[in-house]
Amino acid sequence: MLAANSNLAMFNPLNASAIYLGQGAGAAIGALVLLYGSLGSLGWVAALCAATGVVVLILGIPPAKQTRP
Predict the structure, then answer these.
(1) pTM of the full predicted structure?
(2) How many separate domains does the chain show?
(3) Which one in 23, 46, 49, 61 has a CA-CA gap of 20 to 30 Å to 29?
(4) What is the per-residue pLDDT across 42-68, written as a single tens digit (0 to 9) for each?
(5) What is the distance in angstroms between the CA of the first residue and the CA of the last residue of the chain?
(6) Is residue 38 part of a domain?
């Protein structure tokens, strides 16, 4: 049980760092869209970012092992 708690203590700051990195990247992308595009294109870029995240999530799931009956 102690090993599980130490692993959790190690990965919790990594999770928070990933969240902050995503927020910063989103703000930077939004600023670039508003600088070079228009307010109307901001929603399309946000939808593209969300769709990219879903694709990365799907590709990151390992395939299930099939068992023979």
Answers:
(1) 0.69
(2) 1
(3) 61
(4) 999 999 999 999 999 999 988 878 777
(5) 35
(6) yes
